[in-house]
Please model this.
Amino acid sequence: MSERNSYTTISTGSNTTVKSGYGKLRGLVVNPAAGSVVHVVDSVSIGATPNLNTSQTGEILRIGPYVDAEPEPYRFAIGFNVGLTIAATSNARVHVEFE
Model:
């Protein structure tokens, strides 16, 4: 039986909870601009305007700041418990694959 992953694309700088509850982060594709930062957090709420230059409570990973605009694919099998929230600067587009 094959596994079915879900996906979403975040195209504006924001905090987006892509899943509540437990699951697994499978991959990210980041289409950045210079200076873009992406945070992946095990949480359903990190506030309206988190500081992307510092660690967040429940942080799974932080990517950036990028120095160029080359798309970057990442593959994972990272579990989360509370929820999966992605916070990104307004100049990053992030495609998220999860289960």
About this structure: The two ends are 15 Å apart (CA to CA). The chain has no helices and eight strands.
